Amino acid sequence: MAGTPGAFTSDDVPTSQLYTIFKDRVEQHNEADQNFRQLLCDPDYTKLTTVEISYRGKQFEKMGPDTDRPDMQHTPYRRVTLAEPVRWGINGSITQLAWTKGLSSTKITRDHEESLRADFDLITQSCLQPCLTFGGWYSATQTPPKFQSNTFLSTHDHYVASAAAGVLSLPMFAADKRHIQEHGYKTGNIVSFIHGEQATNLEGIADWNSVAFNSTPVMDKLQQLGFTVEFRAAGIPVVSCDWIPENYMLTVDLAAMPLMWRIPEGPEPTENLIIWDSEVTTPNFQYHWIEDYERWTSATIIAPGAGVARFLNGAAWVDSTGWTTP
Questions:
Q1: Position 65 in a domain
Q2: Three-state DSSP string of 175-214
Q3: What range defines the domain where residue 205 resides?
Q4: Which tens digits make up the pLDDT trace of 123-135?
């Protein structure tokens, strides 16, 4: 990394020291928990374009004579095509004019931290948008596999709409929980995420708030990642989070890790934020410090029965909007 002798900020901090600090902060940022990616994505990133997701399907067969053998069976699977990774960038460079007028180390550091926050926001939206966009969960386009005595029609749909003017009710939570349970997922791992406006509408309902919270792996994980459970509804924890768009609810089995994060093919690992920075050593009319941030994103639902998306302001499903991701 290049450096110019005698390059100092307006408060006499060497730029070479800031370079080192920023590199360390990016490493810490990449090692930190990224909330919804930690909650929803399989921890094993992949460079594959498709993944095979197995499900239950083998059955014992009644045997006949001594020489009889059962038919050969293989574990059934469905193939999921993963979304193409998207490349994103931020130019956080410092112009020569701004440097000449004087920049403090505090201001430069604050600008760097804002880029890290933007990366966190990008990851969050990349995980949530597929969950609230038609087609990832069961969406009346395929027949789910049988589970125990439960069989399903090709019209089975995990995108639910309620003409409720944004007001949640206990039967909604119960129905969405059941949608997930009937595919074999456990109640203790199911959590609902709602917008703060919906949570505010429910705060006065005493019987929803009176249930004590027990320590479970899911509850502990939510707390470790900074999520606060507001109350229980139909026996499942409910988290208020304004990343969920208003008039939507996402209910999901967190233990299923229902999303897969894909990274680009190539020899270099690209699952983390990359920073390219250097001080301009050759006199430059435009830039004094060039600093670029790069991130690749791709999140695809691979467990379509592990989540339910609910729209609360109409009789038909409408995809969520307002995301910065494509």
A1: no
A2: HHHHHHHCCCCCHHHEEEEECHHHHHHHCCCHHHHCCCCC
A3: 8-54+78-326
A4: 999 999 999 999 9
